[in-house]
Design goal:
The chain is mainly α. The protein has one domain. Helices cover 69% and strands 0% of the residues. It contains 4 helices and no strands. Helix 1 runs parallel beside helix 4 and helix 3 packs across helix 4.
Amino acid sequence: MSRYSSILDHVIQPGKGNLSEALAQYILSLDFPKEDRDRYQELSAKADEGLLSLEEKSELEEFLNVNDFLATVQAKARRSLGEPSTPVA
């Protein structure tokens, strides 16, 4: 777990299911648009090959940070609805 993820967990407390049903359902509906998922896959492939520029590395880190945020708030939403938590990929 990254330091960012650890701090995020301390702030959001995904283990506490205390969101309203409507808010939890809304949070679970959040996702990256297709063009962003495609860009993330492109950047990930370049990273695997060691071909990222500094700008692309920064962009990939931003995608990863947003994904960490979504995973954390969606875990809290699932807990609030009584569902098991599953990580966002």
